[in-house]
Amino acid sequence: MSTTNLPDALPAPNSDFYMIADCLSDKELEKLAEVREFAEKKANPLVNEYWAKDAFPFELLPSFKELNIAGAGYTGYGCAGGGTLFAGFLAMELARVDCSIATFFGVHSGLAMGSIFLCGSEEQKEHWLPQMARLEKIGSFGLTEPLIGSGASGGLLTTAKREGDHWILNGEKKWIGNATWGDVTIIWARDLEDNQVKGFIVENNTPGFRAEKIENKMALRITQNAHIIMENCVVSEANRLQEDSSFRDTARVLRMTRSFVAWEAVGCMMGAYENALRYAQTRMQFGKPIAKFQLVQDLLVKMLGNITASQTMCVRLSQIQDAGKLKDEHASLAKAFCTVKMRECVGWAREVLGANGILLDYNIGRFVADSEAIYSYEGTREMNTLIVGKAITGFGAFV
């Protein structure tokens, strides 16, 4: 495209307008810079190709392992450590380049490792977490079912029946990221004896466990989601999460990871905004770059406003979490708010690009499509709104 009449130096896209990175330590900033370099130089050149192919870029895994970020936010057991704020920045930075890569990381490090860290025995943590932190074992999280999404707290159809020192699992799970090629899945099932939800560490090569790839997705196509079928799948009592006794414990994991989804939504907005701004600065129309037009600047500023509001909310949320004061309603408000703002933001980014916005070549179309998955997983906007609504009114409005 022509760049006639452009200034010699244009402002580089900067989606950290309120300098939230200043909240991190120098050591954390150094690690974040490594993650950004990996995302921009190694992941970014591949993601459109693999998104189109509906495949995972396994050649990125060696470089991803070298980042040593799995288990961010967890202390000990070979985990990356650091606080929740730092872990949130990692999720945001990965999603800024590709939401599928961020989801792979969130499922493995957040949901799977988090389940073991929060609900596992000391022995289970010592056995599994170091392997998973080194990415020698890739984890998945199996809660959602073909017929059960928002109603997981009381209606899981997957069952667990104890027989001596083993449990027999039967049922199905759906939308389980990483499970088509990973090594271990945290399966949540309803105990037939006491009707309580319990968690199990299930190795994916266990007889009776089958993971089938979900085809024809329009979002997060790099993330490999599975439909899991369990038929008399035998799991030892030693692989039952020992500190988990009901859905209240499952909810502890979701409370923690729901915060990271809010961070992912922010990263998705940042990626869409930065790509749109670069385009607007160089796309010529009527003899000048479209960034000179008032309506385009209005769209860009509204996008930056959404990003900045969501970033500051997530920073405060992580501070609350690190202080041990996080409640369900705190995480739910951030997830609901940030994903709504994300949907607006990616739509405005596509609007800036016009017809080019639907082409993978310009990245925006990928952010638009992937945002739809982030908008729905880890609790829909409606369910998270009801959680906050109950907290502020004192009345439950659930079915």
From TrEMBL:
<feature type="domain" description="Acyl-CoA oxidase/dehydrogenase middle">
    <location>
        <begin position="140"/>
        <end position="233"/>
    </location>
</feature>
<feature type="domain" description="Acyl-CoA dehydrogenase/oxidase C-terminal">
    <location>
        <begin position="252"/>
        <end position="392"/>
    </location>
</feature>
<keyword id="KW-0285">Flavoprotein</keyword>
<dbReference type="InterPro" id="IPR036250">
    <property type="entry name" value="AcylCo_DH-like_C"/>
</dbReference>
<dbReference type="InterPro" id="IPR009100">
    <property type="entry name" value="AcylCoA_DH/oxidase_NM_dom_sf"/>
</dbReference>
<dbReference type="InterPro" id="IPR009075">
    <property type="entry name" value="AcylCo_DH/oxidase_C"/>
</dbReference>
<feature type="domain" description="Acyl-CoA dehydrogenase/oxidase N-terminal">
    <location>
        <begin position="30"/>
        <end position="135"/>
    </location>
</feature>
<dbReference type="Pfam" id="PF02770">
    <property type="entry name" value="Acyl-CoA_dh_M"/>
</dbReference>
<dbReference type="InterPro" id="IPR037069">
    <property type="entry name" value="AcylCoA_DH/ox_N_sf"/>
</dbReference>
<protein>
    <submittedName>
        <fullName>Acyl-CoA dehydrogenase family protein</fullName>
    </submittedName>
</protein>
<comment type="similarity">
    <text>Belongs to the acyl-CoA dehydrogenase family.</text>
</comment>
<dbReference type="Pfam" id="PF02771">
    <property type="entry name" value="Acyl-CoA_dh_N"/>
</dbReference>
<dbReference type="InterPro" id="IPR006091">
    <property type="entry name" value="Acyl-CoA_Oxase/DH_mid-dom"/>
</dbReference>
<dbReference type="InterPro" id="IPR045008">
    <property type="entry name" value="ACX4-like"/>
</dbReference>
<keyword id="KW-0560">Oxidoreductase</keyword>
<dbReference type="InterPro" id="IPR046373">
    <property type="entry name" value="Acyl-CoA_Oxase/DH_mid-dom_sf"/>
</dbReference>
<dbReference type="InterPro" id="IPR013786">
    <property type="entry name" value="AcylCoA_DH/ox_N"/>
</dbReference>
<keyword id="KW-0274">FAD</keyword>
<dbReference type="Pfam" id="PF00441">
    <property type="entry name" value="Acyl-CoA_dh_1"/>
</dbReference>
